[in-house]
Write a structure and sequence with these properties.
Length: about 250
């Protein structure tokens, strides 16, 4: 068996993403994290944006076209994108216009968080920062690459933000994720098709969903190389605009 077969490379195209959405909306009601979750059957569709705002926008468009809405969790300390770059800011503002919501993807390790007081202080700081940039309420957070302390934080909320890693979510709502570009536990299409869980949290990372069939490594490289090429173009265009020399060997 090849890796392409073992890890379902062909699942991760935007064409198939649309098909999975169609399947999901035939089985579940899409809800936001701050909706009434006492009903019998729903799906919480969530994106942790680790690499690519542009890929996030592409998925947001597909969801808008399919009439479903999701929550995009933004990482302030990503080494792959800067939220304050105009293009990236504009991506998420466009996502809001489509009717989706923004939330915080929080990295405890950036601050070496090891206490609840410190956690709440940093959550308040980062959520306020996001809210000010996008003029949108931030009321949910997810942990980024959670370690032992983060995983032990199972309260319903911290700093007034709903905790997607709370004991309620862990115990009462099914979970399926495409972390690192493959199905780490179960294949999302199978989980949805079999209706294994009446309540389901589906986590996708937008960078893993591309137009063509690629390996996870290729999808990551595409994001990194695309950003590098765009930066080079911006540099060239800047020099041309201001009539400055673009000197090379």
């Amino acid at each position: 068996m090849t890796n392409a077969e073992k890890y379902f490379f062909s699942d991760f195209t935007r064409k198939n993403y649309r098909q999975i959405l169609k399947l999901a909306k035939s089985k579940y009601v899409f809800k936001f994290f701050n909706d009434d979750l006492s009903t019998d059957k729903f799906i919480l569709w969530r994106h942790d944006v680790d690499y690519s705002p542009q890929s996030a926008l592409a998925l947001a468009r597909i969801e808008k076209e399919e009439g479903v809405y999701s929550t995009f969790f933004l990482l302030l300390h990503s080494e792959f994108y800067n939220l304050l770059e105009r293009e990236n800011t504009d991506c998420f503002k466009e996502i809001l216009k489509y009717g989706h919501k923004l939330a915080l993807h929080f990295d405890c390790s950036f601050y070496n968080v090891n206490s609840i007081n410190q956690l709440e202080d940093r959550l308040q700081f980062e959520s306020s920062f996001l809210s000010n940039i996008f003029e949108s309420e931030i009321n949910v957070f997810s942990f980024h690459n959670p370690f032992e302390f983060a995983l032990s934080c199972e309260a319903e909320s911290y700093a007034g933000l709903i905790n997607t890693y709370s004991s309620t979510f862990k115990k009462n709502i099914g979970y399926c994720s495409d972390s690192n570009g493959y199905w780490r536990y179960e294949r999302l299409e199978d989980v949805i098709r079999t209706e294994k869980h009446n309540k389901l949290q589906a986590l996708t990372h937008p960078e893993w969903w591309q137009e063509e069939v690629m390996s996870p490594k290729q999808r990551m490289l595409r994001c990194v190389q695309g950003r590098a090429e765009k930066n080079i173009q911006q540099y060239d265009q800047f020099l041309k605009k201001y009539q400055r020399e673009n000197i090379d060997w």
